[in-house]
Amino acid sequence: MSYKLDYISRLLQRTSSKRIEHYVISRIWHLLDNYDLKMTPQQYVSRELSQYALTDVYFPQIGLHVEVNEPAHYESEDRINRDLKRQKQIEVNTGHQVFVIDCREDILGIHSQIDKLLSKINSEVKEQIENGIFKPWRPENEHNPNYWKNNGYINISDEVSFFTIEDICLLFDADYQKTKRGFLRKGAIANPKNINQLIWWPSEHPRSGWLNNFDEAVGTITETHSDEKRKSDHYYHHAQGTHIRICFFHYTDILGLTNYKYVGVFTNDKEKSNPEIGTVWKRIGDKLNLKTTEISEI
Amino acid sequence: MSYKLDYISRLLQRTSSKRIEHYVISRIWHLLDNYDLKMTPQQYVSRELSQYALTDVYFPQIGLHVEVNEPAHYESEDRINRDLKRQKQIEVNTGHQVFVIDCREDILGIHSQIDKLLSKINSEVKEQIENGIFKPWRPENEHNPNYWKNNGYINISDEVSFFTIEDICLLFDADYQKTKRGFLRKGAIANPKNINQLIWWPSEHPRSGWLNNFDEAVGTITETHSDEKRKSDHYYHHAQGTHIRICFFHYTDILGLTNYKYVGVFTNDKEKSNPEIGTVWKRIGDKLNLKTTEISEI
Q1: For testing the chain A interface, which of B107, B108, B115 should be mutated: the one with the most A CBs within 10 Å?
Q2: Which residue ranges does the record assign to the PvuRts1 I-like SET and RING associated domain (chains A, B) (predicted)?
């Protein structure tokens, strides 16, 4: 079975508990009928930790989120306002668009909204192709460090994701052996091409007391520790100066595989960090030049 | 939410445990994109009781079954032969066609098979429309006894299905009050227009010891009783003469509603029945004229 069939059928299966959402998502996929377009759930953000729920589907190549709102979303003014606020926040913080499908309508109404979405997606893809900037979905490249090394830079929209820390090191010509220390593995290593940049692989799962909360809508990672003393020590250590981290967020993907996904370049947010919350890292760049180590700001 | 959206989204949800089958079925539905075509699981046959597993999807208007064979279906010669035998049996007994989708292929291969299926369905529908015999899917009519009364006849391919025994009686102008006897309800009533025909509503669920095994592929219903004496008494009672039963099979549909579905006209099969197995009823007609009580043979 091909990777794409495996991937997309698992993605559809994931949503099957929400009957109408599932119907809408499967319809979008089948009617788009474009093997070069990646459709992704925003799974590498932990729902439990994030202040905001995730969008239902995301098209990374065109920066478009789709929200499938089952009738329950419209049950109260409060819920409606929360949804709108969240949508606005995603758009402002990520520069992405959010397309909402209102499932209070009947089958014809829902199909008609999907048709509008498909037209939008298709015309944006067409425009990218005409401008020579469309990047077809190539799962075999996404996970290949040599491919990105040759490419010369990595960008959030490229969906760069590695299976191992060794592959991250390979991308930067960093010494993989130095990531090991006894039984524990270090959570980061300096970029050999720029010692002011730390290559970092935080996890959504707690590790030796460390906990990382990645809020993708806002573009922040909050680093805390279950031990108050260690949390505040860590905060004071990063309260001064400018720290830069190239971040590969660790999560388990839809196929059940461990992934370290490139989610951008971050710096310490001195305003938001404090000894109680911990150290807050805010995203300052989407794109990283692997040779010059230059960061392109959002 | 409209009935059709409710119906089809539940049908898709039902198959979601089998990932690839589910992918294929949702693709068929979305790419057909024809609200007038009913797609149905063969749910009113109990999987536990039937000797043969069911087809995955059935299109009653064109008499076409679709089998989605996940790779496991091809794991042994024995399994392959069983599948073929069963397919043949369905085709011979029902006069329907069976279209098999082989999921050992990759995503392009599976999509290409689905494309062939869609062409086939679309051309058969087009032909029916041109010949003026196409009957669009109208769930509101399926369940309405007055609609069928006006129609003058019922046919298996029409998907006639009632929510209550009262509605069955209404169709035949039978006296609903006579179906009651104390706390129990009778399982049948004579057709007022032809006392040689019994209107029968057997259930897939055991009732006071009675158990009915409906094998749709073969077109038989086996009537047994948990009590050996009652089973053999029942057999001897039907071993002589010709008994005719107009059958509405009782089951719970995809929306969780009780249904009595018209599954044809049956007669006692003297060869297959015996005191051990019980009374076997074989289908002898698909279509029943409600005024003349004439049965059209298969």
Answers
A1: B107
A2: 149-290
